[in-house]
Amino acid sequence: MPSTAIVTVVRMLEELPEATQNQVVEHLREYLEDFQDEARWENAFKKTQTKLVDAARRAKREIADGQAKPLDHHQL
């Protein structure tokens, strides 16, 4: 069963001309796709955050121990 908010939006859309309805629906579709994409990125980041923190700690340790070398961007 749709929420009250969804019912309200549908009623508002129904009052608009069909061309405007189509424009609103297209904008909403794009917004929802962006929202879902952002949620996927956030989820992926959460899954790798521990590994990123561990890698940063290891890099700091290697720098402190003198094991790290400056990056030579010409050799990339």
Molecular structure report:
- The protein is an all-alpha fold.
- The chain has one domain.
- The protein is 76% helix and 0% strand.
- The protein has two helices and no strands.
- The chain has helices at 4-14, 18-64.
- The chain is elongated, with a radius of gyration of 24 Å.
- 0% of the residues are buried.
- The mean pLDDT is 93.
Helix amount, in percent? over 70%
Task: Provide the structure class.
Answer: mainly alpha
Reported for the largest beta sheet, the result is:
none
Q: What series of H and E elements makes up the topology?
A: HH
Please give the count of helices: 2
Low-confidence regions? none
Radius of gyration: 24 Å
Instruction: Give the overall average pLDDT.
Output: 93
Q: How many individual domains? A: 1
Furnish the topology, listing elements before pairings:
Blueprint: H1 4-14, H2 18-64
Keywords:
76 residues; mainly alpha; 76% helix
Summarize the model shown.
With 76 residues, this protein is mainly α.
